[in-house]
Amino acid sequence: MTSIYDDAGRNVACTVIEAGPCAITQVKRPETDGYYAIQLGFLDAKEKNTTKALKGHFAKAGATPKRKIVEFRDAELDKGLGDIVTAADVFEEGDLVDVVGTSKGKGFQGVVKRHGFGGVGDATHGQHNRLRAPGSIGAASYPAKVIKGMRMAGQTGNKRVKTQNLTILKIFPEKNLILVKGAVPGHKGAFVIIEK
Amino acid sequence: MDLINFVHEQLTEKKDFPTFRPGDRLDVTYKIMEGGKAIRSQTFRGDVLQINGTGATKTFTVRKVSNGVGVERVFPFNSPILEEIKLLKQGKVRRAKLYYLRDLVGKKARIKEKAHFKAK
Question: Quick one: which of A110, A88, A95 has its CA closest to A177?
Fold first, then answer.
């Protein structure tokens, strides 16, 4: 993340994303696959780290081995198998996009961090060791169980998250960079999917 | 990181400001923006309290005492509202962050001046 200044001189927080070049590694059609989709591969992978099956898949498209493959269902694009897709082909300045990524892992966290519980709120009146405790998780002999979906402590982060409606502020076609307003899920250098 | 630097090379215009350090006294002239337009400019004179951050988000804080009330303003180095920075005095300080000045008033809040400095 970084920040730029808009025309009115305001400081706008934004994220720089390298969006391409991607190769079209497969085109799925209703006749053969039951639906229409375009599969994109991004970032060259080492040949020795690519399985034989995938090597054949990339060779079919005439592309080099790729690190990440993502399918975009019902994508509208005038390109065929093996073509290169750049950031400028798909995005325009001012577009609204959704960004999907894997959020930063926080480990096993309590309810205060994980669900925004308020905690006990009192340091005295007998609360010597339960400042961040969840409190009651249900009644007693009726229903005699903990209701499903009860918010409790557990693994936080490190799961798929989608951030919706981010504005594209700028595009740099020569380096396939796009500048998205606000934050996107995940750590620095992580892979994200941008949906339009 | 390289890509972020690339973005800022494309977007930020280079401004020629004098180099200064915490403890220096500055005249910062900046535009007052209203409704996306600059209506006039104003000068803020004070001592540099700290220089914070790196790269495109680097900022500096200027502190002055106005009518007995301490006033601090944070300016980003790359802000388009900055018009001019004048270096008036070079201070002799032994810290990078001069937060201790906030607790001092009157004669104690002065910063010793560096000898051999000539304002341009």
Answer: A88
Kindly report, residue by residue over B110-120, the tens digit of the pLDDT. Answer: 888 887 777 66
| Nearest-by-Cβ selection for B4 from A2, A9, A11 | A2
Spatial contact of A184 and A17, defined as CB atoms under 8 Å apart: yes
Query: Can you tell me which residue has the tokens 């991004």?
Result: A42
Q: Number of folded domains in chain B?
A: 1
Predicted confidence (pLDDT) per residue in B10-55, tens digit: 877 778 889 999 999 999 999 888 877 778 899 999 999 999 998 8
Tell me the C-alpha distance between B38 and B75, whole Å: 16
**Alpha-carbon distances, residue A24 vs A16, A39, A48, A63, B14 (angstroms):** 23, 6, 21, 8, 40
Q: Are residues A101 and A114 in the same domain?
A: no
DSSP state of B90: -
Do residue A116 and residue A182 come from a single domain?
A: no
Q: Determine the distance in angstroms separating the CA of B95 from the nearest CA of chain A, rounded to an integer.
A: 28
Q: Is B75 within the bounds of a domain?
A: yes
Query: Is the distance from CB of B40 to CB of A11 less than 8 angstroms?
Result: no
What residue type is B100 in one-letter code? Y
Nearest to B52 by CA among B73, B81, B69: B73
- Among A5, A8, A177, select the one facing B7 at the smallest CB separation: A177
> Could you say which residues of chain A have pLDDT below 70?
none
Chain B neighbors of A11, CB-CB under 8 A: 76, 79
What is the identity of the amino acid at A132? R
